[in-house]
Write a structure and sequence with these properties.
The chain is an alpha/beta fold and 219 residues long. The protein is 28% helix and 26% strand.
């Protein structure tokens, strides 16, 4: 029997302003890497698409390093169609400079700097639109208010099978740390709230819910 295949995105993206400056966020990639390690340990065939992070992964994980949101979109679009599961845990930039400067912008050459931004490709929405019925799509939602309401809305709008909601208001979890506080929402409307725990434990809870869907599909 072939191993189930899972594609996981992790980390931030880096959007260049010029050759030395960029726009990014505080994502460490730890949640995505924890997912990759848990899935590989449970016998899955894992492809990890990672933004710029300082993390290592098991040699048995197929790792694709990317920089920008566009790079991540290209890597995902080229690889997701032969996957059984797609988990979009990366914190992809929503905007990118419209015209990155070639070279270094000199501070002495201007009194102020205005950077025009344009939206990046919505990778989760793209996969949701193009995935097959049998593929399981898991999205992540970082919210600062009305977390469950916005999570449910995102799940439906992006055609996800599960959405993992993080609260931006939890000081002891989330970006950069080793712990996280998650709520998993299913397509059928079920809600699973968990206490703060390690990102590895979070990954195990996510795996459990995904395997529940896989088993119901087989049955």
């Amino acid at each position: 029997m072939n191993k189930p295949k899972v594609l996981i995105t992790a980390g931030p993206t880096l959007e260049r302003i010029d050759d030395v400056r960029y726009i990014s966020n505080f994502s460490s990639g730890k949640m995505g890497f924890a997912l990759a390690e848990v899935f590989i340990n449970y016998g899955y065939d894992v492809t990890l698409v990672s933004g710029p992070v300082h993390l290592d992964c098991s040699d048995s994980i197929k790792r694709i390093n990317v920089e920008s949101a566009q790079n991540m979109y290209e890597a995902v679009s080229e690889n997701f169609q032969n996957q059984d599961i797609i988990i979009m845990s990366a914190a992809v930039a929503d905007f990118t400079p419209k015209a990155p400067y070639q070279g270094k912008i000199k501070k002495s050459s201007m009194d102020s700097l205005n950077i025009e931004l344009k939206p990046t490709v919505d990778i989760l929405a793209y996969v949701g639109q193009h995935k097959s019925v049998k593929q399981i799509l898991v999205g992540f939602a970082l919210e600062s208010e009305n977390e469950i309401e916005y999570g449910r809305e995102k799940l439906a709008r992006k055609n996800c099978d599960l959405i993992v909601v993080n609260s931006a208001n939890k000081s002891n979890s989330g970006f950069g740390g080793d712990d996280n506080t998650i709520t998993i929402i299913t397509k059928s409307g079920q809600l699973f709230e968990y206490p703060t725990m390690t990102k590895t434990k979070c990954a195990e809870r996510i795996l459990e819910k995904i395997e529940g869907i896989l088993n119901s599909n087989i049955g």
